[in-house]
Amino acid sequence: MEGLSRRRLLAAVGMGAAGAALGGCAGGAAEGGFRRSHPLRLPFEAPQPDVEGAIPSGTDGVPTAYRSFVSPPYRSVASPPGNGGTVTTFQILYGPPPPPVDENPWWQELNKRLNVQIKPILVPDASLGDKLQTMIASGNPPDLTYVHLGVAPAAMRVIRQGAFTDLTPYIGGDAVKEFPNLARLPTYMWRNSAIEGGLYGVPRVIPIVNGTIGLYRRDWARKLGYPEPPKNAEELLELFTAFSKGDPDGNSKVQTWGLGNIDTNLVRQMFRVPNGWRRESNGRLVNAIETDEFEESLKYLVRMWKAGVFHPDAPNLEFSRVQDLYMAGRTGLFGGGYIPLFGRTGTRGSLRKTFPTADPYPLLPPGHDGGDPQMLQGPGYFGFMSIPSKVGADEKRAKELLRILDYYAAPFGSEEYVFMTYGIEGKQFNYDDDGSPVAIDDDRVANWDTLSYMCQTMENAFYYPGAPEDAVLAQQTLKRAVELSVADPTLGLVSNLAISRNAALSSYNDDRQTGIVTGREPLSVLAEWRRGWRERGGDKIREEYQEALARAQG
Fold first, then answer.
1. In a 3-state reduction of DSSP, which class is residue 475?
2. What is the β-pairing status of strands 429-431 and 437-439?
3. What is the arithmetic mean of pLDDT over 428-432?
4. pLDDT value at 298 more than 90
């Protein structure tokens, strides 16, 4: 996950209030009597290709690791998937737009490989929500439309009203075998992206525990006398206070802090706060903010603030600024999308370019009492590519578009993966002596392929050229996190009210939490906060999720 969109999603994970939508799986619905027309029929999951050097994780939700690249790459698509016409797309854009097709060799090669002419509408991530809603409201969305309900929850209305094709007849069960690369995508991704029994797009897969594991400055910790990671809440507070007070970088002229943001996920996992909601033994849903665990986590955050652990502007810093502070050696912990943390060109490697002796190392939060934490599962995907119903009603056209998405979803080590991930050999990358693709450092070609973001699998494999052991480290850390994780029980359910109230409720919760943590309000206002949450729609959202649970159980 990238940029501001990632920050919004992490905020949604952290608050766990009002059934916040993570990747659009929970929350939001149109008024009316929507019911699933059929039970959820998940696509068959085929095994990953058997290639030399693969290290399977053995755990659902944890990608395969590779110490080296597959050499030579193999073909995963037998023939060009398109029928020679035009395919319009609506896609998210990170960074500058690509050159137009007549000046863009990668785009030209993409059209040739797909045997279609791609006509994209590219939207910067910061404006995706507004643009998506406008596009859908036009009644004529492109053939392949990127839908992200986490930043545009109102799209749930038109999905429920039939604007997009339920792809279950094409990819549910064994039908997905017609699209071999889609069949290799993990089951959890399909399950979590389903909307009350329907598969309304092909998602972009990410780890199921993603934004809640960070890298801490283990070199700072060892220098300050903490050779082992913290084992409980008291040790963690002591360590991060030392990061803020103990001159860990040896430069007394430069202020350092433990964290650049108020990392509520870190603390809630320590105190085993429910992941959004908890389903009690009697079947009743309880929101995270209503629990004793939440209150204890809030008390701890107050202690952290008073200890000076956080950057003074932490309540207001954007994600990019939090990342900048870490990369500048000013903070001791950073968490973002899990895959980009590692490798020579990831967060670990990039930090070491500036600080060669730095040792950024993955940190799983300890349980507050010395036991295990309760990690927060996310949806395991980041938006999905949908086919409008007007287009998908034509079976031949729907299957052509799914074949194109099948190309995009090519697995690690395939020729198609190399092209979608690294570009054109000799122009955008070369293979080094070890057979690893290495990008050519040339600003003129840097953004040729920025229109590629659809359902690629680059976040479904651990591979880090130049840092091969990072793949194993990343896999082992994530495996432990997944083993300790819990899902939001409302994932995949629909509440009629959440779509219209979720943004306001999240803002309300953010304001109350920040007021308490920073000392603007006393902890005693938590009772008033909880009452305000219920009155602003929390109780009604709970009721609607309860009804959806009952429907899901038949």
1. helix
2. antiparallel
3. 93
4. yes
Q: What is the pLDDT of residues 312-323, one digit of tens each?
A: 999 999 999 999
Tell me the average pLDDT of the chain: 89
On the 0-12 / 13-18 / 19+ scale of CB atoms within 10 A, 63 is buried
CB 265 within 8 A of CB 376: yes
CA atoms of 352 and 346, how far apart (whole Å): 10
3-class DSSP assignment, residue 187: helix
Lowest model confidence (mean pLDDT) among 68-72, 152-156, 467-471, 500-504: 152-156
Q: Look at residues 208, 202, 123 and name the one whose alpha carbon lies nearest to residue 167.
A: 202
Q: How buried is residue 72: exposed, middle or buried, by Cβ count under 10 Å (0-12/13-18/19+)?
A: exposed
- CA–CA separation, 362 and 151 (whole Å): 28
Cα distance between residue 345 and residue 331, in whole Å: 20
Q: Measured between alpha carbons, how far is 533 from 544 in angstroms, rounded to an integer?
A: 15
Residue type, 216: Y
The half-sphere exposure of 114 on its side-chain side, counting CA atoms within 13 A, is 27
Amino acid letter, 214: G
Q: What does the pLDDT average to over 153-168?
A: 86
Distances in Å between the Cα of 429 and the Cα atoms of 109, 415, 420, 440 are 15, 13, 12, 5
The SS3 assignment for 398 reads: helix
**Cα-flanking dihedrals φ and ψ of residue 431, to 5°?**
-85, 135
In sequence order, the β-bridge partners of residue 257 are 331
Nearest Cα neighbor of 196 from 387, 367, 33 is 33
Token pair belonging to 321: 């600024």
Report pLDDT digits (tens) over 352-368: 999 999 999 999 999 99
| pLDDT tens per residue across span 49-73 | 888 889 999 998 899 999 999 988 9
d(CA 342, CA 239): 23
Residue ranges in 464-538 assigned as alpha helix (H): 468-483, 498-517, 526-533
Helix (H, G, I), strand (E, B) or coil at 388: strand
d(CA 309, CA 248): 13
Q: How many helices (DSSP H) and strands (DSSP E) are in the chain?
A: 20, 18
Amino acid at 550: A
Count of beta carbons in the 10 Å neighbourhood of residue 57: 16
What single DSSP character describes residue 508?
H
Maximum average pLDDT range among 32-46, 287-301, 332-346: 287-301
Least confident of 363-372, 521-530, 545-554: 545-554
What's the mean pLDDT in 148-164? 83
